[in-house]
């Protein structure tokens, strides 16, 4: 296990270098000059050129890229062109907010999704099964911003139960977490139902029923554990996406998370902030994938980590 983790961490290095390169090249295609944005529209050509030299924008692209990689290795993510503050510090201010929202959302995803999937699988083709699958289909199809605005209208504007926007108390977490967790719960419910149906048709489940074991014991002790592998994959990917920033929901609820920070940086052509934000999000996503692979082994000892 230790050797496998070390090998995966080493494999992460070229992935992150590729992410930095792709983001760097894409930002070069975005219209506008960061030096002009900093100097102002009425600035002289000499002022703009001096700022370009200070930022290193007058160097060849490959030199800018390699210099940035060297700085990242040293722990320096650069200075934000918009706020003139260290990029890493600004990201660390926003990241805890995104983590809180992601954890709350993934909790809703796991609890509602798995519970609905188990009920649907154990009561196949009944009214409960059909109802759950229709709701799951709606959850997958409904855009997150549409659900978020609907929740704001009913629970904030009409019923005054939760704040319309912002962050700070547990009440601010509820509506955004439900908005994000709903689509994930729908996906997990469909996946849980599918895998549970495959498992409960296996011979060892029939044997357990023939021995007279209670249905609850069969489902939660024997069937569920073997059905969790594909579900872990879905939950892990969903959690990685949430930690990377959820732009639409953060915009709808006016939450200053990582996703909104990256979008604002793209709008202002703040290259250091965009690169730093995407790099942090990529590291989180890769680490979540590694954790998912390790969980595979814990849930099924027959799985070999290659």
Largest sheet: none
Note the total helix count: 13
Question: What's the CATH C level of the largest domain?
Answer: Mainly Alpha
Question: What is the CATH architecture annotation of the largest domain?
Answer: Orthogonal Bundle
**DSSP strand content:** under 5%
The CATH topology of the largest domain turns out to be MetI-like fold
Q: List low-confidence stretches.
A: none
How many domains make up the coordinates? 2
| Cα shape | globular
Report the structural category: mainly alpha
Main location: membrane
Protein name: Peptide ABC transporter permease
GO cellular component, one term: plasma membrane
Family: Belongs to the binding-protein-dependent transport system permease family.
Could you explain how this protein is built, in words?
It is a multi-pass membrane protein. This is Peptide ABC transporter permease. By secondary structure, the protein is mainly alpha-helical. It folds into two domains: 2-75, no CATH class; 94-299, MetI-like fold (Orthogonal Bundle), CATH 1.10.3720.10. The protein contains 13 helices and no strands. It has helices at residues 2-29, 34-39, 45-55, 61-73, 87-122, 127-141, 144-158, 170-200, 203-210, 215-243, 247-252, 258-267, 271-299. The longest helix has 36 residues, at 87-122. The N and C termini lie close together (10 Å). 33% of the residues are buried. The mean pLDDT is 83.
